[in-house]
Design a protein that fits this description.
The chain has 451 residues and is α/β, with parallel strands linked by helices. It is 53% helix and 12% strand.
Length: 451
C-alpha cells in the first residue's frame, strides 16, 4: 500500500487507544474501473456508515466521482490502517489485498493535512474546483445522520471547511472557478462546434446535475435542455429551478435518440444509458456527444465504437484539467500556507483535548496533597501568625509548582504529549484506580472533556 505522507508517523494525534486514519484512492492512484468498485452511492451509503460505526470509534466517508476515502478513529496507526482497509474490502465484496496497489493511507498530522488539502481544492483533478466543498458537507451530514460522526471528527470536518473558506477568500486559487462540469462542457462544445441551439438531455437530478444546468444556462441560454430522472418529482423541481423541460424515465431512449448532447450524473450502481439507446442515436447519422460524470459509470462505454457516438467519462477530462492547473499553480504556495496554519491549530486543539483532563486531575491531586501537608505542618507549630502561615503556604505552592513545571510543559508542548499524558495519569493515579484496565482509563480520559 502506498502510504504517502502517512508513512512518517507524527505523534500529535497518537494515543494508546485512538488513532486518526484515512484510507482511500483517487484519480491519481486508481483507474476508473477500480474507483467504480469502491464508490459509495445511493441509499447504501447510510448502511455503510452504520456498519463502519460498529468497527471504529468514529468515521465518515468522502465518496465523489474522483475519490473514495474513509476517515476513522481506530487503534494504533498500522492496525487502524489494516482495520479500515479490511472493512472497505469486505463491504464491497473485494478479495483481500486486491485494492492494496491503489490505496494510500495517512495517519496523525498527515491525515489532517490531507483532508484540508482535499476540501481546499489542492488535491483535486481540477485544481481549485469548488464542488468538493458541497460534497464534503453532504458526507459529514450523512455521517451525522447515521450516528458515525462523533465530536472529534465533527471538529475535524468543521476545521477543514474553515480552512477551505480561508483558501477561497484569501487566495486566487478558486477565482473564476473551474470544475469538472465546466471542463466537461468545454469538451462537448469543442466536439459539437458550440452548444448554441443544441438539444441537451441531462440524466439525473442531484448536485452534479444541478451544476450542469446552472453552468449550461449561463454559457448558452439558447440550448434546449430536458431533465430525465427515475423520480419524476425530483426532475420536475430541478427543471423548474432552471427553466428546463422534464420527461418521464420511460421516455429516456426517445430523448437520447434525438439529442446532440447527453450528460449523465446519477448515483445508480449500474449503467442507465445502454447500447440500445445509443444505437438508435447512431442510426440517425448525426454526431452525439455523451458526458458521463458518474462513478460508477452511467453510460455503457462499449457504445463508443458506434459511428458518430463520442463518450467522455471522468478520466478523459484529465488532460484539460492539467492545462487548468498550470494557470493556477502560482496560488498553490499561499493556499498551502493556510492549510499548514489550520493543521497547527487542529494539532493544538487535539493535544489539549487529550492532555488537559490529565493536567487538571494531576493539579487537583497535587493541590489536595499540598493543602493537607500545610494543615498538618501548621497544626504542629504553636502560635503561628498570619504572616508566618503565608510564608508556609507560599513555600509549599512553590515546591509543587517547580516539581510539576517540567513534566507538565513536556505534556503540553512535547511531540509525545499525548502518550506522556496517559503515562502520567497512570503513574499518579490513586492506588485504588490503578486496577482499571488501561484502555478503559484512556478512553475515559479522552471522553471526559467531550462537548
Amino acid at each position: 500500500m502506498g502510504s504517502g505522507q502517512g508513512s512518517s508517523h507524527r505523534t500529535p494525534y497518537r494515543t494508546s487507544t485512538l488513532q486518526l486514519v484515512v484510507v482511500g484512492l483517487n484519480q491519481s492512484t486508481a483507474p476508473l474501473p477500480v474507483r467504480e468498485r469502491v464508490a459509495f452511492v445511493g441509499s447504501r451509503s447510510g448502511d455503510a456508515l452504520a456498519h463502519l460505526a460498529s468497527e471504529v470509534e468514529e468515521g465518515f466517508i468522502l465518496s465523489t466521482c474522483n475519490r473514495t476515502e474513509v476517515y476513522a478513529l481506530a487503534g494504533h496507526a498500522e492496525s487502524g490502517i489494516r482495520l479500515v482497509t479490511g472493512w472497505l474490502e469486505r463491504w464491497h465484496g473485494i478479495d483481500p489485498g486486491t485494492l492494496a496497489p491503489y490505496l494510500y493511507a495517512h495517519t496523525h498530522e498527515a491525515a489532517v493535512r490531507h483532508l484540508f488539502r482535499v476540501i481546499s481544492g489542492l488535491d483535486s483533478m481540477v485544481l481549485g474546483e469548488d464542488q468538493i466543498v458541497g460534497q464534503a458537507r453532504s458526507a459529514l451530514a450523512l455521517a451525522t445522520a447515521a450516528g458515525s460522526l462523533g465530536p472529534r471528527l465533527h471538529r475535524l470536518g468543521a476545521a477543514a471547511l474553515a480552512v477551505s473558506k480561508r483558501v477561497r477568500a484569501e487566495t486566487r486559487l478558486c477565482r473564476s472557478p473551474v470544475s469538472v462540469v465546466s471542463i466537461a462542457l468545454g469538451a462537448a462544445a469543442d466536439d459539437l462546434g458550440g452548444l448554441a441551439g443544441r438539444s441537451v438531455v441531462v440524466v439525473g437530478a442531484g448536485r452534479t446535475a444541478e451544476s450542469v444546468l446552472k453552468l449550461l444556462r449561463s454559457l448558452e441560454p439558447s440550448a434546449t435542455v430536458t431533465v430525465v430522472n427515475r423520480t419524476a418529482a425530483h426532475a420536475a423541481r430541478l427543471g423548474a429551478r432552471h427553466g428546463a423541460r422534464t420527461a418521464e424515465w420511460s421516455e429516456l431512449a426517445r430523448h437520447v435518440a434525438s439529442a446532440d448532447l447527453v450528460i449523465s450524473a446519477t448515483s445508480a450502481p449500474c449503467v442507465v444509458v445502454g447500447a440500445s439507446e445509443l444505437r438508435a442515436a447512431a442510426a440517425r447519422g448525426r454526431p452525439l456527444v455523451c458526458l458521463d460524470l458518474a462513478v460508477p459509470r452511467d453510460i455503457d462505454p462499449a457504445a463508443a465504437v458506434l459511428p458518430g457516438i463520442s463518450i467522455h467519462h471522468i478520466d478523459d477530462l484529465q488532460q484539460r484539467a492539467t492545462a487548468n492547473r498550470v494557470r493556477r499553480e502560482a496560488e498553490i504556495g499561499p493556499a498551502e500556507a493556510i492549510v499548514e496554519q489550520g493543521v497547527a491549530r487542529f494539532a493544538e486543539w487535539w493535544r489539549a483535548r487529550e492532555v488537559v483532563p490529565v493536567i487538571s486531575r494531576l493539579r487537583a491531586r497535587a493541590d489536595a496533597m499540598r493543602e493537607a501537608e500545610v494543615q498538618r505542618a501548621l497544626a504542629r507549630l504553636p502560635h503561628v501568625d498570619a504572616a508566618s502561615e503565608a510564608v508556609v503556604r507560599a513555600l509549599a505552592a512553590r515546591l509543587v509548582n517547580r516539581l510539576l513545571h517540567e513534566p507538565l510543559t513536556n505534556v503540553k508542548e512535547g511531540p509525545e504529549g499525548a502518550n506522556l499524558a496517559i503515562a502520567l495519569d497512570r503513574l499518579f493515579a490513586p492506588r485504588a484506580a490503578r486496577s482499571d484496565p488501561p484502555a478503559t482509563r484512556s478512553a475515559h480520559s479522552i471522553e471526559s472533556i467531550a462537548s
